[in-house]
Amino acid sequence: xxxSRQFRLWRGEVRPTLxxxxxxxxxxxxxxxxxxxxxxxxxxxxxxxxxxASFVNAVAHLPLVLGIGLLSAxxxxxxxxxxxxxxDEAGETLxxxxxxxxxxxxxxxxVLAALYPLLDHFGQSPEVVTAARPYLLLFGLSLLPAxxxxxxxxxxxxxxxxxxxxxxxxxGVLLNVWLNWIFIYGHWGAPALGLVGAGWATVIARFVxxxxxxxxxxxxxxxxxxxPARWWVALxxxxxxxxxxxxxxxGMQHLFEVSAFVLAAIMMGWISADxxxxxxxxxxxxxxxxxFALGIGAAACIRVGHAFxxxxxxxxxxxxxxxxxxxxxxxxxxxxxxxxxGRPIASLFIDSPAVVGLT
Length: 359
Hints:
Oligomer: single chain
Strand content: under 5%
């Protein structure tokens, strides 16, 4: 009887986690679809542009994932405030989180700008370095709107309003694909800019997403009760301390994990342009599927925050371990799909038989 009751309690956490995880996964997948669309559309231009995109993505994703990890604290603290029925704290978390996102975006751009003259020291071929330089600056410019949009999205998701940010992210993907079509290949009177065109498309799409999400969190009736009482007042150090206390270890974990993949991508460039292009395709597919597990984790994080804020401590373990099981099952299915259909998937990105074989 005791086992039956425990089983029902654990099973009862699966559906709410999946219900919240689905729109979050869709939003995260849409972020990856933007990079995946760039990879597919740039791959049609040639191996060198695809290799350059891989090189830039490898280097530039380090500050991006660090920022995303730090900003995960916005979701945690907002969820705890929601569970504790303290809307004022949720509003202050949003206000300080947006300031932190802007600061991280500007810092990331400065770091990438400092790397601009040093790209030829990474052991890549001269053709790849030449193609990568303008794309690096454009990618850096897109990080500020990407991180601000991330803060807005996590705030809304933590308050159980995940669908509108998801639709905005998906709309951003469609906008990015359309702009890619114009700028990469030179349609509607625009010059064919190749990889640089993909960079401009990403910048424009991310700024549009940022503006729409800011307007949503400031005007949505469902979020009105959680707005800051006053936007333009002095910031408080204690809120930044709380954001860093929770976000810093997550950001560093993301940074160390992604650094391994970044070093692998750079080392592929030591071999050949074909090798780094193949690596870009493979890692893009792997990162795409990882967003599903990350979405489940984000949903669990929010639900644990709600339980913690409400003082329901016995539920926290059940929520967390159910999410781990769901993520493991889902990623196992993706692993089987990659083993069975690796070559057809790789052929979607590029026509080069050598690159498809390596992928």
